[in-house]
Write a structure and sequence with these properties.
about 300 residues; alpha/beta; Arc Repressor Mutant, subunit A; Rossmann fold; seven-stranded parallel β-sheet; three-stranded antiparallel β-sheet; about 40% helix
Length: about 300
């Protein structure tokens, strides 16, 4: 029997009779791989035409545009602009990616911090490790920390980076990162399977200014040098190029280059005020997956 006739038979069996690939293969005495190829060619050659009678949902359309424009593995656009909606979507992705012995890294982020209440393992356990990607605020609670609450929700091992995120000198940094426990956490961070990060914008609500680790004047200097945002307190311009600061070498945490080596980096951000920062972040090519809302996605796609 010729392939053309096989394509027609396979198409009728699959699309009209609702038979599975395995059932078609058995009836036509073919392999399942052959059936898959026949059905693919049937669509390519117009033997089968598929028509969706309803328009594409707006969020799905935005997701496809973002994936194409920024070469993302996936873009998830949520309809609601409420931060908790992003938290739920991020938690859903986290649980989907879960597997035994996975190492999951977290940076500071008020948006990513919305994830913990939506993690529901349904009495299941998974041997995973949560790793800090950046230092912390020693001596006080960090309102932007994520790793501890996620580790509690997952009942997972936590590898904290319990050192100041920015220290007083390069020598102090070199001494601290040489400590075995700190070196081990940084090495684990570099070898994470997945990382969840946020974006900080250069503006009045900048995290470093809010927590007192940077003077507003220094932020304005960064802006004068073209910086639009930061990831893990590593600054960049709208084209994704690094903008080095004098505190760069005094920061304890992953660099953007090290972050790029992680197989799946999930960038979670929303808000009109973060559009340029998010554009620059995507242009760094650090992110593999983006989670945002409709308003931010629209603003992002309007940027040139």
């Amino acid at each position: 029997m010729q392939d053309h006739e096989l394509m027609i038979r396979a198409a009728w069996m699959y699309y009209h009779d609702d038979l599975t690939h395995a059932e078609i293969a058995r009836r036509l005495h073919l392999s399942r791989v052959k059936v898959t190829r026949l059905l693919k060619r049937a669509r390519e050659q117009g033997i089968v035409e598929i028509r969706v009678t309803q328009p594409m949902p707006h969020d799905l359309n935005l997701s496809r545009q973002l994936e194409s424009r920024f070469a993302l593995k996936q873009a998830i656009v949520v309809s609601s602009t409420v931060p908790s909606a992003l938290g739920r979507a991020t938690a859903d992705l986290l649980l989907y990616l879960m597997q035994q012995d996975i190492h999951i890294g977290f940076g500071w982020s008020s948006t990513v911090s919305q994830i913990a209440p939506f993690i529901n393992m349904q009495n299941q356990t998974c041997a995973c490790t949560i790793v800090d990607l950046i230092g912390t605020m020693v001596g006080e609670a960090n309102p932007y920390s994520v790793s501890g609450s996620v580790a509690d929700a997952l009942k997972a091992k936590l590898m904290p980076l319990a050192v100041p995120v920015v220290v007083s000198s390069n020598e102090a940094r070199d001494t601290l990162v040489a400590e075995p426990s700190i070196a081990a956490t940084l090495d684990a961070a570099r070898h994470c399977d997945v990382a969840f990060i946020g974006v900080g914008e250069i503006g009045p609500t900048n995290t470093m200014v809010e927590i007192g680790l940077m003077e507003p004047e220094k932020l304005r200097e960064l802006e004068d040098h073209g910086a639009v945002g930061e990831i893990l307190i590593r600054y960049y311009d709208v084209n994704g190029n690094a903008v080095k600061t004098e505190q760069h070498e005094r920061t304890i945490g992953l660099t953007l280059d090290e972050l790029c080596s992680i197989p799946n980096v999930v960038l979670v951000a929303h808000g009109k005020h973060k559009v340029r920062a998010l554009l620059g972040a995507l242009n760094t090519k650090v992110a593999d997956i983006l989670i945002t809302d409709i308003v931010t996605a629209e603003g992002l796609l309007q940027q040139d």
